[in-house]
Amino acid sequence: MKNPKTVSDLVKQNKVQEFLEVETKEGILVLGLLPNCLAARAGVRKDDRIVSVNGERIYSLQDYITKLNNRSDKVVLEVIREDKNLKFTLDYNPVSNLN
Questions:
Q1: How far apart, in whole angstroms, are the C-alpha atoms of residue 54 and residue 10?
Q2: What is the pLDDT of residue 76?
Q3: Which of 51, 75, 90, 94 has its CA 20 to 30 A from that of 36?
Q4: How many Cβ atoms from other residues are within 10 Å of residue 64's Cβ?
């Protein structure tokens, strides 16, 4: 594998955590959300750690993006918040999101 030269290279090679020398944990940490995005409306909050999408474990942002790209109309996120496991359903069906 070649050495990354840009941030984009790091993301493509799934090397961001290694480059930044941060502890690798399961899932991804939510650093912030847009107020009316699907995840926020479902109950996801800043500082939650998303650990699975539709029951499939994720270990990086790339895992998360890949699983969302292969989703159905409903996505179940498993989240760890203050040592509690929570599940939130995101509804990507445009008709049901009109409310």
A1: 26
A2: 94
A3: 51
A4: 18
Contact 38, 97 (CB under 8 A): yes
Contacts within 8 Å (CB) and 24+ apart, 37-45: 38/90, 38/91, 38/92, 38/97, 39/77, 39/88, 39/90, 42/77, 42/88, 42/89, 42/90, 42/91, 43/86, 43/88, 44/77, 44/79, 44/88, 45/81
* SS3 state at 49: strand
Name the amino acid, one letter, at 68: L
Q: 38-86: per-residue pLDDT in tens?
A: 899 999 999 999 999 999 999 888 888 888 888 778 899 999 999 899 9
Q: Walk me through the domains of the chain, giving residue ranges and CATH numbers.
A: 24-91 (2.30.42.10)
DSSP 44: -
- Residue 10 structure tokens: 């790091």
CA 9 → CA 14, 21, 28, distances in Å? 8, 16, 19
